[in-house]
Design brief:
Oligomer: heterodimer
Helix content of chain B: over 70%
Number of helices of chain B: 3
Strand content of chain B: under 5%
Largest sheet of chain B: none
Distance between the termini of chain A: 65 Å
Structural class of chain B: mainly alpha
CATH class of one domain in chain A: Mainly Alpha
Number of domains of chain B: 1
Order of helices and strands of chain A: HHHHHHH
Chain lengths: ~180, ~100
């Protein structure tokens, strides 16, 4: 599918892509958990821009609210609750051998994925090029997700609510600080 | 744009894998897992751009699961810290405290 995009689009796509990868690398190389979390927030913001560029506006908003907002705040909360903000005692990253091995594994995975990227995608699955724009115009940004979510995937949606309930209960029980069953 | 998105996804996922492998701080490892989940989300969105919008629904599910995972995982980290006064994975090597 040779598609042509305006330069404006392509420029922003690559711009936010480079920001995302650069902040991800900065995130992985930080030793202080607070700095790492803030770089990860930066990655999340760049990715939400990518989502908007890929016609998923609602997902972009959710990305900022849920990931950059809620989840990362919880992480920072834990870092500060446990008073772990000092990089000196947390600098215990693994040794050079481990780093080398991690780099090699990463390279192996990357080459594997690049091989898969060259595979042919099934043509009959491809929707018309303006399919998503039509959906957006017809159902608007929330409706494109809400329609399948509450029709085709209703059971999965309901099961997700059970999952969240279990997660809340588990977090409360684990965070209570006493052995389960002890009074 | 599909190939570029998938390449970006691959790069982000692998940065996450490398982070899991080189760090010993449980919280940073956890954040690397979040990065990997987000990279997978980008795959879903990229494919939904070309193969229909259903992929975006799965992103919602992945976000829910990762929020639940963050809540439970951080509770576990807090419990371990209370017990051992450390979250360095080098010092946490017993199933039974």
């Amino acid at each position: 599918m040779p598609e042509h995009y305006p330069l404006f689009y392509t420029f922003h796509f690559y711009f936010f892509g480079v920001i995302a990868i650069a902040s991800a690398i900065a995130f992985v190389t930080r030793k202080s958990p607070v700095a790492a979390a803030l770089w990860l927030v930066n990655t999340m913001f760049a990715l939400s821009a990518e989502y908007v560029l890929l016609d998923a506006q609602f997902i972009g908003v959710m990305q900022v609210l849920v990931y950059a907002g809620a989840i990362m705040v919880v992480f920072l909360f834990v870092v500060m609750l446990l008073n772990l903000g000092h990089p000196s005692e947390l600098a215990a990253a693994r040794g050079t051998g481990w780093k080398l091995a991690a780099g090699l594994i990463g390279l192996g995975l990357l080459s594997e994925i690049m091989v898969i990227l060259r595979a042919k995608l099934p043509q009959q699955l491809i929707v018309p090029r303006d399919f998503n724009e039509q959906q957006l115009a017809k159902l608007n940004a929330v409706g494109t997700i809400a329609q399948p979510l509450f029709k085709d995937y209703l059971l999965a949606f309901e099961l997700t609510s059970v999952l969240l309930l279990v997660a809340i209960a588990g977090a409360v029980i684990l965070g209570r600080g006493r052995a389960v069953g002890a009074r | 744009m599909l190939a570029e998105s998938l390449a970006l996804t691959a790069a982000l996922f692998i940065v996450g894998v490398i982070g899991v492998l080189i760090h010993r701080n449980a919280i940073i490892i956890f954040m690397c897992v979040e990065l990997m989940l987000t990279a997978v989300n980008l795959t879903f969105v990229a494919f939904s751009r070309f193969y229909g919008t259903a992929g975006q629904v799965f992103v919602v599910f992945v976000m829910t699961v990762s929020a639940a995972e963050a809540a439970v995982g951080l509770a576990i980290i807090i419990a371990i810290f209370r017990h051992r006064q450390t979250i360095n994975l080098k010092d946490i090597n017993l199933l039974k405290g």
